[in-house]
Amino acid sequence: MTxxxxxxxxxxxxxxxxxxxxxxFPKVQCFPVGQPDGGRDAVSYRIDDNDDRFMVFQxxxxxxxxxEVDPHKWLLAIMEDELPKVKKLIEMGASxxxxxxxxxxxxxxxxxxxxxxxxxxxxxxxxxxxxWWRDDIDRRLDDAWALKWAYPELMTGADFLRW
Length: 163
What we know:
Elements lengths: L9 H15 L3 E3 L11 E4 L8 E7 L10 H22 L1 E8 L11 H13 L3 E4 L1 H8 L3 H6 L6 H6 L1
Helix pairs in contact: 2-3
């Protein structure tokens, strides 16, 4: 099942992604929406030690990802533009990078958008980096009932039947 992520506007999608990330990374610091953030929508510091390294979370939202011919190409271009910001964050101590998007990835080995973006980030960044594409977000949302109730725009008929 895919969720109607486009029922959220870009700001609300960022809030939703921050809340989703908190389920997996409880030490996340969320930044306000609509302010210059230097390529980070949230970070997670290692509070339990004296290490200054941190994980960066960045959110990219497409208003109509299914209306574009190749929406994943848009995301690849956006990521290329973001690389200088991420490299500055690495100089400041970023040790991991996670990009979240409502764009559906393509799975073709070596030439699909998922492999292409993974390769781009691995070569350009030199730190562990991953993208949570639409399918990744959908699967993480399947059992996230508290998030569905907090963002009811995402609920589907099947959710109401199960409830």
